[in-house]
Amino acid sequence: MGRGSAGPGERAAAAWAAQRLPGDVALEPYRWPRTHAWAHLPHLAAAATGNPLLTAAALVSYELDQSGRLQWVQRLLPAGHGVNVVARIAPRGPARRTFVLVAHLDAQRGGLIWHRRVVEAGAARRLRTRSMTPASLGVALVIALRRRPLLALAVALLLDTARRPPVPGANDNASGVAGAIAVAHALAAEPLERTEVLIVLPGAEEAGMGGMRAFLRAHALDPATTFVLGLDTVGSGTPVVARAEGAVLAHRYREEDLALVERAAGDDPPQRWRIAAYTDPILARFAGLPCASILSVGEHGMYTHYHRSDDVPEHVDLACVARCAAIAEAVARELDRE
């Protein structure tokens, strides 16, 4: 099933997942561009003019776009039709809190930009510092340098990705969807006492978090009583929790939210990492909601088979998926006890 963002494959995946979720399940349509590749191009074009003021503006705009804080380019692009899946699991008693578990449905498009020699370079540094270098930081550097050969290369790589079909996406992020479905069944079988559970499977994460943005617009969540947790690419081998993320600048998660995840995980908490790019919970962070993002890393300090055609089920570490799902369930139960 090719799960391209905001397209027929994503909608088919949403229907598939909806049939397997307990509780009150709804399909919520939204509109969003089908790839994030085009959003890079106006920023590169501004740098190609050679104008220092335009370049400075492009760098600021690029960071805002890549972090998800202000994505003005997407509003100008043709939009695809996507679907979010939202399942509600009621508590035993009156609901006083809300636990939102998020795992995106869609899969990234392939391309040379994701070649393993590029993605896996610098493994020793990543494993030592528990920090990934965002690929978009390289694009930002190309914008800042304003070297036309480099700008042309960046455009070529982005156009290559924009024209590719989606990869299988078993680890990124069928693993997170599987984990979320498992947690949903566990919480439906043994409901929380006073915490309503929302299982949210949004689309278009790979195209700029379009599905999560639509979900947050459609649902009024109270920061005082809500906690948002993400499961994304959780089959790499070693569970981690994002201490910070962002494609250019590092946007930090709150210490108290990270501590909640670690406390719930018990004697074997996930490692804290500064991850590259973005995950859906960062939009909740920008909206002022308590949140955290659980992922995993492999032997190279990266997500295994990241955005490649060999991201297939047999390469997913199922024990790691199960551990991440167990942590997510434990967070929900810890939150319910507070």
For the CA atoms, what is the radius of gyration? Answer: 19 Å
The H/E string reads: HEHHEEHHHHHEHEEEHEHEH
Reading off the top of the CATH hierarchy, the class of the domain at 8-32 and 80-111 and 166-337 is best stated as: Alpha Beta
What percentage of the residues does DSSP assign to strands (E)? 15-25%
**Mean pLDDT reading:** 95
State the distance separating the first and last CA atoms. Answer: 41 Å
Low-pLDDT residue intervals, each spanning 5 or more residues:
none
- Class by alpha and beta content: alpha/beta
Put simply, the count of helices is 12
CATH architecture of the domain at 8-32 and 80-111 and 166-337: 3-Layer(aba) Sandwich
Largest sheet: 9 strands, mixed
Give the number of DSSP strands: 9
CATH topology of the domain at 8-32 and 80-111 and 166-337: Aminopeptidase
Global shape:
globular
CATH homologous superfamily placement of the domain at 8-32 and 80-111 and 166-337: Zn peptidases
Residues in helix, % = 40-55%
Can you lay out the helices and strands and say which pair or pack?
Blueprint: H1 8-18, E1 24-32, H2 37-48, H3 52-67, E2 80-89, E3 97-102, H4 116-119, H5 123-129, H6 135-145, H7 148-162, H8 170-189, E4 195-201, H9 210-218, E5 226-231, E6 238-246, E7 251-252, H10 255-265, E8 271-276, H11 281-286, E9 291-297, H12 318-337
Helix pairs in contact: 2-3, 2-6, 2-7, 3-6, 8-12, 10-12
